[in-house]
Amino acid sequence: MLTVDFDRFPVAPGEQVLDMGCGAGRHAFELYRRGACVVAFDRDEKELAGVATMFGAMELEGEVPPGASARTVTGDALGLPFPDDSFDKIVAAEVLEHIPDDMAAMAELLRVLKPGGRLAVTVPSWLPERICWALSEDYHTAPGGHVRIYTRAELEAKLKATGFEVGGHHYAHGLHAPYWWIKCAVGVNNDENPLASAYHKLLVWDIMKRPLATRLAEQVLNPLIGKSVVVYFTKPAVPATREQAHAAA
């Protein structure tokens, strides 16, 4: 299940792309299929082991175009182990809401992105996330959980202050917000609840089959209750002067 829209965020074969905070690797796998030279980065070594295994399986199954490459790297988002201007594109999907010093992480993303390069950031949308927090303390207080709720304006303002230029946005996963409200209401770890279980089966069916009915439903629901907001940014080709940065702020 992808959150980034690769029609809005096209990736060319051979481009150097970082998936920062890749988790289980859903975006890294899509980048690899599109022919990128992918670095899947995360602090969770166990997750990365699974990602590396899948990279190998994709290559064996012939899912990877010639010239593409993929590797995993473990580390901390506040000190990315890459030189300046390393990547043509960066994906940071559902990760900044976990990082207490988010602006330090944003500064690292700016540092390792090439001038003119593009960044796709996704975070939980304000309204669906606020409802989840109101329904369940466990949802956001678990170790490694969410430490903040962004408005889109706040996310854009922080990344603009870091040095990025904003390049459009959209919302995703409108069908998923009600599922998480149900989970929060009945207990986030209560997988046996009949309503939560039935809704989960609906989501799995939607992901596997992508029927027209649910695709149309998501188009309607995404702007209203999309679980994630996706914002696209560009690193200026020429660094802004201090006066320009002050004016933009």
UniProtKB/TrEMBL annotation:
- Which keywords has UniProt assigned to this entry? Methyltransferase, Transferase
Give the organism the record lists: Actinoallomurus acaciae
Q: Give the enzyme class.
A: transferase
A Gene Ontology annotation in the biological process aspect, one of them, is:
methylation
What CDD domains does this protein's entry cite?
AdoMet_MTases
**Family annotation (PANTHER family):** GERANYL DIPHOSPHATE 2-C-METHYLTRANSFERASE, ZGC:194242
Q: Please, which domain of life does this record's source organism belong to?
A: Bacteria
In Swiss-Prot or TrEMBL terms, this protein is called Class I SAM-dependent methyltransferase
Q: Enumerate the GO terms in the molecular function aspect.
A: methyltransferase activity
Q: Where is the Methyltransferase type domain?
A: 18-120
Q: What EC identifiers does the entry list?
A: 2.1.1.-
